[in-house]
Amino acid sequence: MPLDYKPSGICDFHVHIGEKINGYDLRDDFSDLERIAIVNGIAGIGAFVTEEPGLSLTDKFRKMQEKARLNFKGKVHWHLTPIQAEIDELFPLLQEGWDLKFYTTYRESGLYSSYEQIEHWMENLSDIKTRILVHCEDDRIIAQASAEHPFRTPYDHTLRRPELAEIVAVEKVLNLAIKHTYPVHIVHISSPKAAIMVKEAKSEYPFITCETAPHYLIYNENRLSGINAHRWLCTPPFRSEKSRRLLVELLQDGYFDIIASDHCPFKIEDKDRFKDNLPLVPCGIPGLETLYSSMYNNFVEPEIISQAYLDEMTIYKPKTLMSCF
Ligand SMILES: [Zn+2]
């Protein structure tokens, strides 16, 4: 039976909302959030604020925070991505208990941080140890793989952004976290090997945490073939069936701290605009509305995981990571 009731209190730690990404306004703004939250039992989200040219990160954050306050009755925990901003400017915000978020890829859109830059933040924040979220895909490996595999079909996305890129970046970021005894959260793990490495590190260094997303547990790379497959482009891409199955086993064995959606919805017309020029298709898919129900229908209903465990991963544990609760 599909899920026939509305759970309440769901906390989605990874939600892109009310921002422009790669020149496109996301489909959802904070004015949409209250409705989505009521229908789907969402109590809180972790939202991203990415510095933009011409606006200081602090000013953008305050504007988004006010919008959220006016529109959404639930709680919002914030993840901040500085591009130019220096630590002194951000210090007052970081003292409020928000996170930083860095990307080891996306050089073309200006989001890229080198491992050295991430280490520099760790060194400078050694007193307050602001949690750092990291999107782990090694940019050098992505550049090589992308050069070898032109983007002709949506499926090529899987070849251009291989699991190895995630594995290498995760290893490097874990080493930095351990070296500096620094709290790091690895977002949207899609590769079983990366999940195993995080688990090993975590057993000795409990300040390391990680998440995976429902779409890596439910879909495999075959979703990127066939009609309108470009609408399913997200980063990291869906993996092989073998990896998907392994990831589900790791979920059963408690390898992840939380499940979060990486909700990053674009309007269909924006997804479709460059379907014949795939490098320009904005990468991201929605997931906030279906975070709980998709996990329930695919894994609780067939008795792969218990409902209590799903509640822990989508309600109780995320709350412990969010300073707004
Ligand atoms: Zn994301």
Outline of this structure?
The chain has 325 residues and is of the alpha/beta class. It is built from 13 helices and ten strands. It has helices spanning 30-40, 57-71, 87-94, 115-124, 139-148, 156-160, 163-179, 192-204, 214-218, 241-252, 268-273, 291-300, 307-321; strands spanning 10-15, 20-21, 24-25, 42-50, 75-81, 99-103, 132-135, 184-186, 208-212, 258-259.
Q: How do the helices and strands follow one another from N- to C-terminus? A: EEEHEHEHEHEHHHEHEHHEHHH
Molecular shape: globular
| Count of separate structural domains | 1
Each distinct ligand? zinc ion
Order of strands, main sheet, comes to 1-4-5-6-7-8-9-10
**Segments where pLDDT lies below 50 for 5+ residues?**
none
Features:
two-stranded antiparallel sheet, 325 residues, eight-stranded parallel β-sheet, alpha/beta, TIM Barrel, binds zinc ion
Describe this structure in words.
This protein is an alpha/beta fold and 325 residues long. The chain has one domain (10-321): TIM Barrel, CATH 3.20.20. The chain is 42% helix and 14% strand. The chain is built from 13 helices and 10 strands. Strand 2 and strand 3 (24-25) form a beta hairpin. Helix 1 crosses helix 2 and helix 4 runs parallel beside helix 7 (163-179). The longest helix is centred in the middle third of the chain and has 17 residues, at 163-179. It is globular. The two termini are 33 Å apart. The structure holds zinc ion. Zinc ion (ZN) is lined by residues 14, 16, 262, 264. The site of zinc ion (ZN) has 4 residues, from loops.
